[in-house]
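Newbie here. two chains, one complex. Structure please?
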Amino acid sequence: MTGTTGTGVRDTATLLQLVESELAPTLADGALSTDPDVLESYSRDEALFCPADGAVALVRATTVADVQATLRFASAYRIPVVPQGARSGISGGANAVPGCLLLSVERMSRILAVDVAERSVTVEPGVINQDLKNAVAEHGLSYPPDPGSVAISSIGGNVATNAGGLCCVKYGVTKDYVRRLTVVLADGTLATLGTGTAKGVAGLDLRGLFVGSEGTLGVIVEITLRLVPLLPEPLTAVATFTDERSAAATVADFMASGAQPSMLESLDRTTLRLLNEYGDFGLDDRAGAMLLMQSDGSGNRAAALAEVESFTARAEANGALDTGYSEDTADNEALVATRRLAQPAYERYAQAHGGGQLLDDICLPRARMPEFYDGLDRVRATSGLTIAVVAHAGDGNIHPSVFFDARDPADVERAERAFEEIMRLGLELGGTITGEHGVGYLKREWLPRELDEGNRRLHRAVKEALDPDGILNPGKMFADL
Amino acid sequence: MTGTTGTGVRDTATLLQLVESELAPTLADGALSTDPDVLESYSRDEALFCPADGAVALVRATTVADVQATLRFASAYRIPVVPQGARSGISGGANAVPGCLLLSVERMSRILAVDVAERSVTVEPGVINQDLKNAVAEHGLSYPPDPGSVAISSIGGNVATNAGGLCCVKYGVTKDYVRRLTVVLADGTLATLGTGTAKGVAGLDLRGLFVGSEGTLGVIVEITLRLVPLLPEPLTAVATFTDERSAAATVADFMASGAQPSMLESLDRTTLRLLNEYGDFGLDDRAGAMLLMQSDGSGNRAAALAEVESFTARAEANGALDTGYSEDTADNEALVATRRLAQPAYERYAQAHGGGQLLDDICLPRARMPEFYDGLDRVRATSGLTIAVVAHAGDGNIHPSVFFDARDPADVERAERAFEEIMRLGLELGGTITGEHGVGYLKREWLPRELDEGNRRLHRAVKEALDPDGILNPGKMFADL
């Protein structure tokens, strides 16, 4: 059984003594903390329903040497290590496990080099995504991936989870931008994976293996990313519909037509209502669904306009209530900003209704989305719960939020069941249980249902080969394979 | 030591008897051949200087079951298996090893499904790249990767080597298009890796691990590829220079300006001369270098024209002898066709000069290309050999061809040394020993020089985990790690 907690030393007092006597002297000053309040504040990410207890110490690494020293120590005594970035994840991947060392790289946040001719940037893992975007923009370059957490999540965490976002429908996900990684392995060995060049096939793609590995194979300490020329300013179009099925059918039609939108998001009736309750956005919440689409025409205004018109025509053919677009930059930015406020609006609603929100993340073939909404109505009916949906619809990546009263155990159970029914529906429709949020702790029981036995065997074999003592982020992703 | 020949049965007669008695009954009719002439013709790819002897039998699989049966049998008796596609590779990756079964998937060549809304295609591995392109074009879709072997190489081989081509500078390489793989593991187990959806992060990216794994981890039996809308027709520009350094500097300047050419190739003086000797192309072979650039403006003619003009302006600023472009489709296609004839022209020249040509494949940071040409002049001076160069210059991916008299052992040795000096130069300039041709047999001794010890250890661990008996394509890629 891989992925189990491989702790060789189980007594906290002994562990603490070892940390002070053997680990502390090998770390930079101020890197180590065993203060219970500090540990508590670093023990969890943004996930619900995931245990996060039992951290023994926190290492806030400032150098690669700190990371190596921590893993050498942890490996020698088989102490679990939980790698952490900005702890903005929502699957519990950065949560403490009993008897663990928390290993944060948030202080390793330097941008090391921007290479304009090569269109690449080399950074430490703690750099915040938006800070990276800003830094490379000064050189006329873009780093496209834009998860919802763009303002707070770190590049290391983005790589460790293969983060997505709104731009993926045209510009791809994090893995499409990672050229080279330096990682520290379970025993403290440093390894450089991939190449800094545009192409390279020397050996296995181990770089890719670490992208999305959620801290289970090693700790990422340096990252070279491919960049692209500054993204052109897009036009933004909106269409409203009586129901989600018409919106979903529009998405499938539009994408089948060869369109290349730089954003294609959907918001359901409940989301529109909660947004209007949250702020003065004037969204048409009598509508059953809204699509928000952007086209940058790859830099050509006329092409963008043609694509926008193709979109509105297809929306109208699918019975849209209303369509429109704006050439005004401020209008466009306001619309996208409103979309990005769906999560704060959800939080406000949850706080007023017992505090519970479970955010799901499935990805389907685009053409199956109408069936998904039929299934979701059944989940709503069975659970009796409010479920709001935003989706990166152009990619078939759907985020239903299940709201519940966290003080009512029966409601919590209903919510957990609804959350699971949504994953089941995703699998039934040929999709995946997670499009971009990752497995972490939250979905570890569901991973075996998606992967076939051959794939599960490969996972176990790779994990055992790279982390034979199972000290790296145990109890997460692999725990039930 | 991994990657060694793990043969448990060493006597050919015994092996043949086992093949006939135990393997043959489990295969489709006609799949098995032990005819020496057939074995001889299937024992090698297009590489030079790579051993290719000792194949015991050939399985031409027509179904997944044939592949599974072969690997179950091979695993039980620890018999080496060499997976093969079209055998168009040039690194010896498909060459026979002593006592092996050759396992060809060329007959598994069905296109299983095209999904227009999802923009994906699912194929068997034996489909020829150009046939796939033609089939999806009927649905208004493109599969961009276009290795030089596009007309003869199979998608399975393209995936197994992560093939590149001319379009990569804008459209990426094979790995950027692989969504899902079905593979047969060393013991015959079937595993499905990745997801058919646009996004997905459920578990490790094992799909990516198999892309470029050159038959060392398993046999690819089904592939789902992402497609894009039909590529727009490009404009083509040409610039000639007195020397390669000016051409290389133009490439670095142009790419640093934010350009997005859909092709950016360079041809050196010798290549221009050999092309003119091969056919009536009227290339200016008094020039020391030529750049051939295409821009599709992402579908916008004005943008393409602007990019072409930006290119010619930069070429002139770098002292171009002549620049020009054509809006005529036939002219454009003729120029690209001429570029694609460099290899036949090389072959003609080699045949007339002792038969030897070693084609190298390094990739550098673009800005280091002028230094590379300085170094290459030193290799020319030291070796006294003719070395011609074509390059996917926009990616820094350089293909020097070393010509020699294959009948003269001293010349052969000089050529092998020059070939190695080119790889050494690539590594010194921050590049890789192979941008797109792969390691195979030809470069296995050089792989350890590129990878650091941590990376080598990871390679060994992954190989041991997935192929514990070392039966999959032994003696190749991993042999010297």
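Moderator note: Chain A touches chain B through 94 residues (CB under 8 Å). The radius of gyration of chain A is 23 Å. Thread marked as resolved.
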